[in-house]
Amino acid sequence: MIEKLAIFGVGLIGGSVALALRRAGAVKTIVGVGRNRENLDAALALKVIDQATTDAATAVKGADVVLIAVPVGQTAAVMGRIAPHLEPHTVVTDAGSTKQDAIAAAARHLGGHFPRFVPAHPIAGAEQSGVQAAREDLFRDRNLILTPVPQTAATALRVVGELWQACGARVREMQPEHHDAVFAAVSHLPHLLAFTLVDEIAGRPNADELFGYAAGGFRDFTRIAGSSPEMWRDVCLANREAILRELDAYVQHLSRLRVLVGQGDGPALEEMFRCARRARRQWLAEN
Amino acid sequence: MIEKLAIFGVGLIGGSVALALRRAGAVKTIVGVGRNRENLDAALALKVIDQATTDAATAVKGADVVLIAVPVGQTAAVMGRIAPHLEPHTVVTDAGSTKQDAIAAAARHLGGHFPRFVPAHPIAGAEQSGVQAAREDLFRDRNLILTPVPQTAATALRVVGELWQACGARVREMQPEHHDAVFAAVSHLPHLLAFTLVDEIAGRPNADELFGYAAGGFRDFTRIAGSSPEMWRDVCLANREAILRELDAYVQHLSRLRVLVGQGDGPALEEMFRCARRARRQWLAEN
């Protein structure tokens, strides 16, 4: 049982953690912290949090766990604000999509408290953002990845692992660099491809007509282009090298496809599409 | 009321047309024609069609309407097989994703019957293919595009328009070249991007691990990579020039994004993502 949990950033992720832990009976008091008083009031009204504050010191005082659930570009600033006020036993964790940058920020800002920082990434999301979109089942049966470093305290790691298990997540561990490379491929790259497609079409003189004839395939393909611009800006900045590698590999593969289309190579095109369909079906069957 | 309808290719599209017309009471007898006896037997068992044959002459004899619903690469061959057997009044139509190639094939193979060929494209589909996936509501409130040419007979155009209205579709008209350009952008390109992403990841040594961490965003983004390889091969061959133009425009836009990521240009990245999200939301609100 967590006596006091402070959540910085009561949006889709932070709010869903609050709802899930409450339902599991795993927390007594939840304090929401944010820059935006309106959002905090909404979170209070929705009973997602018990108390709200914009003051880091108040929030952190006596907290067993501090969860940082802000866009990853703000993680370092939040760490700087909480560092002077942390209790010796407080466990700090985050929920960002990139992990090497969170670890570097913690090393820089948390000082001697660094071993009690546990980097974490829930593999769940939604097209909508904000506390109104929070759901207690957002993490149920989803992967949650912990990326501890050699200095990470085993007790802190256990606390965070149990927190996410209480949310229904499947807790895994991964090396931070490896985490960032994997998610550059299966998450960051697809988001950028979808944003690019929608932006490219939106910029055309006949954009309205084009969107008017877009159908279900386009809708699903571009669902992730409805995601938070601020969050994805920060992901691009935080995981730049891995994302550039993925973009380059993708463009190279796409240029091979272009050659096949240009040559009218039917058998090779069909073979490529067949491989893709088979791989996707196998994935769906196993997951 | 159509007394006799012959459907070449009783798959997702052909089967769904049969079910929709039957439900609307708009057809008396439906004959399914195909290469694959097993599929025809399934269509008979599912009561999608009344009769089945592999013989084009039998199928076409006395037919008011012939619907060609095969992968677009086979359209020309089907036209060649039916041409000698068409009744003077028979209307021929298709359901292919590309229209200029269908019109060229009709001009080449249907001879004097060309004015009674009506090129059509229903903007509906599904991840699954085959008659088992057919649904009577597949076209309800979906766009159906007719791309008549100057020679097209008004009576034939009306028959096909009414057929699709009976299926619940919203019937529109478009120039064939314009149709092929529009769908290269909003349909063909996204399919190729999705096939490419899945194929690229499937070819990596750690493909299993990568797929294992793919989440809902990846699932939706790649849904269309589950589409028929044969159909999409044919679309690439039939609409090559427009698809190449779209691939080039997309890669150019993606290379601009790459520059922004490489430079770590947060404001420009956020602006691009914001434009894309706004455009997509506006589209969803209007459609």
Would you give an account of this structure?
- The structure is a homodimer.
- In chain A, the strands form two sheets. A six-stranded parallel beta sheet of chain A has the order 3-2-1-4-5-6, sandwiched between helices. A three-stranded mixed beta sheet of chain A has the order 7-8-9, covered by helices on one side.
- The longest helix of chain A is centred in the middle third of the chain and has 27 residues, at about 175-200.
- In chain A, helix 6 links the parallel strand 8 and strand 9.
- The first copy, chain A, has about 290 residues and is α/β, with parallel strands linked by helices.
- Chain A has helices at about 10-25, 35-45, 55-60, 75-80, 100-110, 155-165, 175-200, 205-215, 215-220, 230-240, 240-265, 265-285; strands spanning about 1-10, 25-35, 50-55, 65-70, 90-95, 115-120, 120, 145, 170-175.
- Chain A contains twelve helices and nine strands.
- At the A-B interface, helix 7, helix 8, helix 9, helix 10 and helix 11 of A face helix 7, helix 8, helix 9, helix 10 and helix 11 of B.
